[in-house]
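User: For my dataset I need records formatted as: sequence, then structure tokens, nothing else. Please produce one.
Assistant:
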Amino acid sequence: MLCGGASTRMGRDKATLELDGVPLAVRVADALGACLSRVRFVAKDESLRALGRDVILDGRPEQAALVGVAAALAACEASAVLVAACDLPYLDPRIVLALCALAPVDGPADVIAPAGPRGPEPLLAIYRKRMLPEVERRIARGELALHALLRDATCALVPEAELRALDPTLRSLTNANSPDDLR
């Protein structure tokens, strides 16, 4: 789970920000843990270990989600990694399972993502480990936009209609980027 962002719009670290008494990172980790055998935080330092999960250090100065994806892919033992932002407080495990259903081992898609109203959601997606060299090239060139990576990659998308059958309001895809979003 990506927890290394600058949280500039929120004004403080989103991972530890509480909603209903539970840190956002724990809420998302619990939803992921209902479906996945291992959930780890990707962060700039070890402080999130206090929330009860292992931490993958992203180790780069850039404040970009693509850097977190690279760290997760590099640390991943499996052929793919599910990446989720720590600010998806209403993530429904059924959405995670729908993504996993499209991700057979060594399938043809490089990225599996939900197709939300604004297009593919790169901050809740499965990335194949084989994408790591391309991700590293983009970081080296300063091309840090995840949407651009998805545009250029072979993607499998969970259709919006299928997502709405599981989560009618698509609340699972709602990011808490600001205090207003959280309210």
